[in-house]
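REQUEST ID: PR-0412
SUBMITTED BY: lab tech R.K.
PRIORITY: routine
TASK: structure prediction, single protein chain
INPUT:
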Amino acid sequence: MSITSSTTPPATKTTPSRTRNTLSNLTPPAITFVVTIALWQAIITLFDIPPYLVPGPLDVVNALRESWRTILNATWMTFQASAYALLISVVLGVSVALILASSKRLYKALFPYTVVLQTTPVIAVAPIIVVWFGIGMSSITTVGVIISVFPIIANTTTGLLSTDPNLLQLFRLYNASRWQILTKLRLPYALPYFFAGARVAAGLAVIGAIVGEYVAGMGGKRGGLGFVIVESANRLRMGQVFAATLASAILGVLFLVAINTLSHVVLKHWHASAAKHEG
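STATUS: complete
OUTPUT:
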């Protein structure tokens, strides 16, 4: 008797399919980008708009070519402040969420103050931050934390409080301790909510760092992208302003990609939110 190898998995068919999916996902935004740049340059040329009002794409490219070292150094400083702010926001946000979710009374007593912290204008508290932490990286990071911590607190708290009551009852039925319920059930259940908040916080950390460089920056010294934007705008070097803004946008995208990658790695084997949707 001969046995055919009909059960051999078609391993070679997955690569073309993945390549096709990747291309189908990248093509629409690439086309949109090219069309936008072309229209932008066409409008600048057609209406003869001066570069000190609105620079064209070629002006931005020239600004990048002329001051790439300055923008690169500024991007690195803003990256450091944003990374510190995001890391502190994660630690602080998860800690506060655990406290809020541990008791309904604590939630009712403390959660409104987290909302107040989020809605307070940073400009109003910037002088206090500068007095407490001084001018420089500490103040910039603090501003970034104030802006980015709330989504993590709100989303993680929601996740911890949304644990399936049937699963909670099952754990209690088997005499699970509070620590076991927290680590084996409530924290895993809250992970998708946490990553949803972290995605928002990733972008806000970059915004917060740049705002911090505006309001509590380097005191006239060389600083991050916020300092470059302010200094360039004061000198009407709008090409450099747009170049620094582009660098900040790319930095935010990189943070978001990092969070999305981590979320996929952690959740892909057990949660539907990490599944790839097609169509």
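NOTES: Confidence is low (pLDDT under 50) at residues 1-9.
REVIEWED BY: pending
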